[in-house]
Amino acid sequence: MLMLISPAKSLDMQATFPVLEATQARLLDDSQLLIDQLQEFNPEEIRQLMGISEKLSELNYQRFQDWVPTGATAQCPAVFAFRGDVYQGLAVDSLTVDEIEFAQQHLRILSGLYGLLRPLDVMQAYRLEMGTRLENTRGANLYAFWGDKISHLIDADMPEDEASELINLASNEYFKAVKPKLLTSQVITPVFKDFKNGKYKIISFYAKKARGMMVKYAIQYKITKAEQLKGFSSAGYRYAEELSDTKQWVFIRDET
Predict the structure, then answer these.
(1) What is this structure's pTM?
(2) Could you give the number of structural domains in the chain?
(3) Which terminus has fewer CB within 10 Å in the chain: N or C?
């Protein structure tokens, strides 16, 4: 079983982390092609491309100019660098070394710049969302740029001695970079709904955090079969069989 999550815009490149054997991202040649192109952009062009503020465009302009593929002192393992809602739920700082090593085998992070990251793959500060319409030599956007590469790498990373199941805990924007038809594994998408105004509905902030909590649950209990995820009960969520099907598993939470 392999779990898939999105990256985050919020970063902490000075995050502290235990002494672990860091790894290198495996699609760095592709990342370099994107960087080569982005280094030609001035701050205003970056602002227009990404729809961000002038301050953020200046920041990311400098990040692209300073980017080197390996060996940078500012590098940080991806799972510690990202600090968004999903990662609040994951709470990697609370995991043991043994649990982080389990995550290295069973968790992958989609990335607009790096394609696919393992938790301990070192990365540099960047911002490049998968939905960015960056026209490139391979097509009109990043989905065209990455093509089949992410899907093939996910398939190669699937543990051979376990059930071939991909747990999609990524956002729609990022999962669009994956081509399920190219995967040999079954794709299961957990959905988290909270009871509000008389019905269960997806509330973005809570759903993102719940995705991270499910990853943490799987890591701490060393879950290797999707069926075991139905026992997830963190923060009051419970599996709702009556709302679920084989491809989409719904977890609900009542008002607290």
Answers:
(1) 0.96
(2) 1
(3) C
